[in-house]
Amino acid sequence: MRVIFTTWAWPSHLYAMVPLAWALRAAGHEVLVATQPELLETVRHTGLPAAAVGRDVDAPAAFHDIAFPSSAPPGEGARGGPRVVGLFAAIAEAMAPELVALGRGWRADLIVSESTCLAGPVAAAALGVPHVRHLFGTDLLGNAAPFLHQALGPLCDRLGLPGVDLAGVATVDPWPSGLQVPAPSRRIPLRYVPFNGPGRLPRPLPGGGGSGLPRVCVTWGTTPARVDKRLFLAGRVARALAGRARVVLAVTAEQRSLLGELPPDAHVVESVPLHLLLPRCEAVVCHGGAGTVLTALAQGLPLLLIPCLPDHVRHSAAVAGAGAGVALPAGTGDPELIAAALPDVLACGAAADGLRAELAARPSPAAVARELETLVQLADR
């Protein structure tokens, strides 16, 4: 079986699919990751074969306009939903024609796309092969089909397609079922196996348990600073928690300069895969990105969430609703509010551990790979 995984140039969306892609490779199938040129080197660091399709699109600028509506054209600032749909349609326009050509020349049997990469279902329709959606968090577009079909209309017309089945034959879902919205197609639950990029096991963290303070990981993913440095609140959070927690800041090398002056007992680790660090922590404070949230829940850690973008708000609300964490208002930087929330977060440990147990009981990537084999076999009959 020959499987194309496709995503646009956003690393966290790629990382969500890496374990399943490797499971298919381990089972003896051919796997190829097709993405915009900007993400090509990141794909190579996963060890998976890669191919560039289409051209890059300035997605950070579009998300900046959504996060800071005053920079949008008059009358459009509050229209986040239509702007997001327009962005995803523009990315599909940039990728789909070359993705179709790649799939035809490579003789793909199946296309798996992360749920916001609309070039995936378009290419699958053009090639006449099954399409599977792969979620990375809550299903952001499951109920937006009418708007998406309208936005994709010109592209489908150019490719000679009467329509596109955006739901696909199945939806692979790593998100806890109680935190998810209904899927538009058959749902295949997937055990979340964290992939946070390559890296080394970190050295032992300073400060043992003698202080009596909880060790808390503060991390702000890769998205907020990429959209606008004002959204990167990790340093501010670390200062707010001074004296209340042993803070470990997990950042990239590029983010370190954004932290500002830190408390003397705060510890910074650079470019360490998060799943290697969190077993040494008791809670996580973050922006609500899906990968960070799932990596924390896979360890049974409660979360303090300060969302930045609309999908972060949705993830944060879902976690708080399940009792596995506390969500503060979007963009909150009030140190007193952040510090006061920490005891409530630590009290959410039992609920977070319950979600950990649920995730651990789900089918492994290897089991889901076998299910995809069956889907393709049924499609060939």
Quick summary:
The protein is of the alpha/beta class.
Defining traits:
381 residues, Rossmann fold, 7-stranded parallel β-sheet, 14 helices, 41% helix, UDP:flavonoid glycosyltransferase YjiC, YdhE family, EryCIII-like_C
Describe the protein.
There is one protein chain. The protein is an alpha/beta fold and 381 residues long. The chain has 14 helices and 13 strands. The protein folds into two domains: 2-191 and 362-380, Rossmann fold; 215-361, 3-Layer(aba) Sandwich (Rossmann fold), CATH 3.40.50. Helix content is 41%, strand content 15%. A seven-stranded parallel beta sheet has the order 3-2-1-4-5-6-7, with helices on both faces. Helix 6 (145-158) links the parallel strand 5 and strand 6 (170-173). Helix 4 (80-106) packs parallel to helix 5. The relative contact order is 0.12. Residues 71-79 have low confidence and may be disordered.
